[in-house]
Amino acid sequence: MDAIGVDIGGTKIAAGVVADDGTVRAERRYDTDPGDPAAIEESVIRAVSELREEHEVAAVGVAAAGFISPRRDAVLFGSNIAWRDHPLRDRLAAGTDLPIVIENDANAAGWAEFRFGSGRDAEHMVMATVGTGLGGAIVVGGCLLRGAFGAAGEIGHMQMVPGGHYCGCGHEGCWEMYASGRALTRAARAAVVAYPDRAGALVDLAGGPKIKGPHVTQAAQAGDPLAVELFEDLGFWLGAGIADLAAIVDPEIAVIGGGVAEAGDLLLEPARESFRSHLSARGYRGELTVQLAELGNEAGMVGAADLART
Amino acid sequence: MDAIGVDIGGTKIAAGVVADDGTVRAERRYDTDPGDPAAIEESVIRAVSELREEHEVAAVGVAAAGFISPRRDAVLFGSNIAWRDHPLRDRLAAGTDLPIVIENDANAAGWAEFRFGSGRDAEHMVMATVGTGLGGAIVVGGCLLRGAFGAAGEIGHMQMVPGGHYCGCGHEGCWEMYASGRALTRAARAAVVAYPDRAGALVDLAGGPKIKGPHVTQAAQAGDPLAVELFEDLGFWLGAGIADLAAIVDPEIAVIGGGVAEAGDLLLEPARESFRSHLSARGYRGELTVQLAELGNEAGMVGAADLART
Amino acid sequence: MDAIGVDIGGTKIAAGVVADDGTVRAERRYDTDPGDPAAIEESVIRAVSELREEHEVAAVGVAAAGFISPRRDAVLFGSNIAWRDHPLRDRLAAGTDLPIVIENDANAAGWAEFRFGSGRDAEHMVMATVGTGLGGAIVVGGCLLRGAFGAAGEIGHMQMVPGGHYCGCGHEGCWEMYASGRALTRAARAAVVAYPDRAGALVDLAGGPKIKGPHVTQAAQAGDPLAVELFEDLGFWLGAGIADLAAIVDPEIAVIGGGVAEAGDLLLEPARESFRSHLSARGYRGELTVQLAELGNEAGMVGAADLART
Amino acid sequence: MDAIGVDIGGTKIAAGVVADDGTVRAERRYDTDPGDPAAIEESVIRAVSELREEHEVAAVGVAAAGFISPRRDAVLFGSNIAWRDHPLRDRLAAGTDLPIVIENDANAAGWAEFRFGSGRDAEHMVMATVGTGLGGAIVVGGCLLRGAFGAAGEIGHMQMVPGGHYCGCGHEGCWEMYASGRALTRAARAAVVAYPDRAGALVDLAGGPKIKGPHVTQAAQAGDPLAVELFEDLGFWLGAGIADLAAIVDPEIAVIGGGVAEAGDLLLEPARESFRSHLSARGYRGELTVQLAELGNEAGMVGAADLART
Fold first, then answer.
1. What CATH code would you report for C120-293?
2. What angle do CA C23, C27, C29 make, to 5 degrees?
C-alpha cells in the first residue's frame, strides 16, 4: 500500500507519496530554516496533511540526519538541526492517526537503493552517501542493520588515520574527513595554497580561493589535472574504507550515492582500484562490485516511506 | 539434539559431543602435523566415528582457520594448513551419513559465546579472538553474519594505520598487526632493542631476547612496568578497533577471547578506556560493554557443533 | 658595541638597544596594525631614530615572521604581514647610515638563547618556539644555520603524520599542527565536542566552547585532568619531533620557548619522556637535554641586534 | 698529500690510496667475515701496510657502519659488526705512526660526493645512501655535520609514520623502513602475497617468492608495471623525507647514492615529484635539486681518506 516519505534536510523538506514499487505518485517541497525547528515540524505536518487529501496511505516515514533512537521515535542527536533527545514522532503524530517512524536519512536512502535501485538484486549491501558528510547504510540478509542502539551504519566515523584530520565529532581521522564533499573542498583549498601554480583552473571557476565541490567536479570533467587528482585522492580513501567494510560485513555490492558521486567514474574508478589494492585475501574470496546509486536525491524520501510500511 | 563439534587447530584437533545447552558430554584430542593434511582428515574421521559409538548425534560441525566457502563446504584459503579451494566437507563425509558443515574457527568460537557464554543475553555482538592472530565473529539480530562470500567478520584485516606494520596478508597496517599475540611478541622484542634498560624482567623471564606472549603476561601480572605498558598499547589498539566496529555494526557487547585475553583486565581496562575515547557521539548514543569471553578454548568446538544443528 | 634590535610581531613592535652581553639598555614598544605595512615601516624607522638619539649603536637587526632572503635584505613571504618579495631593508634604510639586516624571528630568538640564554654553554643547539605556530632555530658549531636559501630551521613544516591535520601551508600533518598554540586550542575545542563530560573546567574558564591556549594552561596548572592530558599530548608530539631533530642535527640541547612553554614542566616533562621513547640507539649515543628558554619575549629583539653586529 | 681510505663493509673491505683530487692511485679488496672482528682488524692493518710500501701517505681514514664517537676514535654501536664501545682506532694504530680517524660510512661517502662528486659545486648538501639501509650525510657551510655526539646525519631513523613498520632499531616508522633496499624487498614480497596476479614477472626473475632488490630493478627496467610501482612508492617516501630535510637543513642539493639508486630515474623521478608535492612554501623559496651520486661504491673509501687529512 502507498506510504508517505518525508526527507528533512538542512534547508529543505521533500515529502511524497510512494507506491509499493518505489514510484513517487506526488511530491511536495518546502524551503526551511534549520534554526526554526518548530516551523519545520509544522511544514512536515502540513505536507502530510495535504498529501493525504488526495492519496490513501498506510504510514509515514520521516528521514532525518543524526542519531535516531532504536525505537525509531526520537532524534537523539541531530546533525543539521539542533535536536537533542527530541521526541519527533510524538510531535508529528498530533492530529494524525497514521503510524509514523523516524529513520536516519542515510539509512533511508540506502534502503531505497536496496529495494528499488542499484542494490535491488543484492542480499547484502553497503551504501556510502558521499554528500557534505559521509553517511552509510548496511543491509545484511535483506534487513537494514540498525544495531543495538540504532547507530549501525555510521561508517563516516570509522577512523582511517590515527592523528588524522579533525572531524566535527571531535575525533581525529574519521573516514568522513577523507571521503566527503567537505574533504574535497578542504583538499582543493589547501591545494591552492600548496600548489598555486597548478590551481589556476579551479581558482578561475570559483572566482577566487573559496572553491566548492561542484567547481572541482566541473574542472575534473573538463580534464583539469589538479581536479582529477583531487578525485583520485578522494577515490583512494573511499576504496580503502570499502575494503574495511568488506572485511567486516562482506556485502556483494557497495553503492555510492550523494552529491559528490555525480562525478561518476572520476570518483568510482579510483575507488574501485583502491578497493582492489586494499582487499585482503584477494583472489581467494568473492569480491563486491562498486556501483553508482540510481535514485538520486529522492532516495531518502522513497526509503523512509518504504521502511514505514514494513 | 546432541551434535559433534571439531576444532582443527594448527597442531591439534579437539572433537566433542555437545548438548543443546552447550555442555560437552565427551571429548577427544589429537596432536596433528599441519604439514600432513591427509592425516588430519583421517583423525577427524576417526574422532567422529569413535564419538558416535557412544552418543547419538544429529550433525557434525567442523571449525577451521581461514576463509570458508559461503555454502560451508570448502576451505577456500586455510591459514594454518595449506588448503586452497579444498572440498573439506566431501572429504570428511565419506563413510558417514551425518550432515557436516565447515565453519570459520573464529565464527564458531563467537557463536559459542553468543549462545552459551558472555554474549548469551545479547542480540547484537562482536567477538574478537586475540590469539596468535586476531579473529572475529559478528552476530546481528541473533544471526551469525557470514556475508555475501562467507568472509564477514574478518576484522583482523581492517586497516588501522596507513603505511603501518606489514601483515602476513601482504597489506600494511591491518588491525591484527596491532592487537594480537603476534603484535605483542613483536612489540616486546622491539622494546628490548629500543629500551634495553627497561626490558630486564622480560629478558630474564624469556632467558634471552626471544620473548613470547606468555612471558609478557606473566611479567605484567607481576607488575613489570614495561610489560604493563605493552598491554596498554595492545589495549589501546584493541579499543580503537572496537570503536570502529561500534560505528559500523553497533553491537551491545564486545567479547574478547583468545590466549592473549587471559591477561584479563591488564588488557581489557586499557581497551575499554581507548574504546570510550575513540567512540563518536559518545553521550548521545547507547554504548557497548567490553567483556571477557567465558568458554575458554572449547569455544570453537562448542560453536561448530551448535552451528551444525541449526 | 651596542646594536638595535627590532621585533616586528603581528600586532606590536618591540625595539631596544642591546649591549654586547645581551642586556637591554632601553626599549620601546608600539601597537601596530598588520593590515597597514606602511605604518609598520614608519614605526620601525621612528623607533630606531629615537633610540639612536640617546645611544650610540653599530647596526640594526630586524626580526620578522616568514621566509627571509639568503642575503638578509628582503621578506620573501611574510606570515603575519602580507609581504611578498618585499625589500624591507631598503625601505628601512632610507634616512639612516647604519647597516641593517633582516632576520627570521624564530632564528633571532634562537640565537639570543644560544648567546645569552639556555644554550649559552652549547655548541650545537635547536630551539623550538611554541607560540601560535611552531618556529625553529638551529645552531651548529656555533653558527646559526641559514641554509642554501635562507629557509633552514623551518622545523614546524616537517611532516609528522601522513594524512594528518591540514596546515596553513596547504600540506597535511606538519609538526606545527601537533605542537603549537594553535594545536593546543584546536585539540581543546575538539575535546569539548568529543568528551563533553570531561571538559567542564575548560568551558567554565573560557566562558563557553571557544577555549584559548591560556585557559588550558591555567586549568592544567590547577590540576584539571583533561587540560593536563592536552599538554601531555602536545608534549608527546613535541618530543617525537625533537627525536627527529636529534637524528638529523644531533644537538646537545633543545630549548623550548614561546608562549605555550610558559606551562613549564606540564609541557616539558611529557616532551622529555616522549623524546626518550622515540630516540633511536638510545643508550649507545649521547643524548640532548630539553630545557626551557630563559629570555622570554625579548629574545627576538636581543637576537636580531646580536646578529646584526656579527 | 695522499691518504689511505678504508671502507669496512659487512662482507668485504676496500682500501685505497686517495690523492688530493679524489683519484684512487691503488686499491685492495678483501672478503671478510662479519662474525670475526679480529680478522677484520688484521685485514685492515695488512692493507694499510701493503699500500704504504709503495705510496707515501699522510693519514688513514676508516669508514664503518654505525655510531662513531665524537672524537672519531671508537665505534659506539656497529650495525654490521657487533662492535660496542669498541676502540677501533687504538686497535688499528698498533704498529703504525700514521694518524687514524674513524668515520661513519655514510658520512664518508657523502663527504666524497661533496668534494669530488655530484655535490662538488654545493656549499650545503644532504646525501641519502639508499643501500640495504638508509644512511645519510649532511654538509653545511662546507663542513661535514657531526653533531654534538657524533650522531648527526642518521636520517634513516627520522620517523615517517607513527605506528609504521618496525625498524631494526626497535622503533616504528623510521624513514629507513620506507626508503631502502630492505623496504623495497619487503614491499616486493608483500606484493606477491597481496597481488599474486600482478607479481608474475618478479616471481619468475627471482625463481620464487624470495625477491631481492636487483630483481625489482631489473623488472622495472624491463617495464614490469608492479616493479615500476614499487619504485614509485619508494620514490614517494624518499621525496617526502627530502622535503623534511629541506625544512630543517635547507641544502641546495640532495644526492642519492647506494645500490638501490642504480635504478636511476625509475627512483629519482618519483622522488623529485614527491619532494615538490611535499615542500612547504614552494614557489616562495629556493629549491634544492635531487641528483644521482657519481662516485659509486668507492665513495666511502675516498671520503674516509679525504676526511683523514683535513
1. 3.30.420.40
2. 140
What is the dotted CATH code of the domain comprising A3-112+298-308? 3.30.420.40
| Whether residue C262 has pLDDT greater than 90 | yes
Is residue C190 less than 8 Å (CB to CB) from chain B? no
Interface contacts (B, C; CB < 8 Å): 17
Q: Do C166 and A190 touch (CB under 8 A)?
A: yes
Contacts of B280 in chain C (CB under 8 A): 194
| CB C280 within 8 Å of CB D154 | yes
Predicted confidence (pLDDT) per residue in D175-204, tens digit:
999 999 999 999 999 999 899 899 999 999
What are A152's three cell numbers?
549501525
Question: A157 and B240: CB-CB below 8 Å?
Answer: no
CATH of D121-293, one of 3.30.420.40, 1.10.8.60, 3.40.250.10, 3.40.50.300: 3.30.420.40
The cell numbers describing C135, all together, are 618556529
How far is C281 from chain B, CA to nearest CA, in Å?
Answer: 7
Contact with chain D for residue C246, Cβ under 8 A: yes
**What three-state secondary structure class fits C158?**
coil
D95 pLDDT above the threshold of 80: no
Task: Give the pLDDT confidence score for residue B69 in this predicted structure.
Answer: 92
This model of the complex carries an ipTM of 0.95
Q: Is C91 on the interface with D (CB under 8 A)?
A: no
**Domain range annotation of chain D:** 3-112+298-308, 121-293
Phi, psi (rounded to 5 degrees) for D46: -65, -45
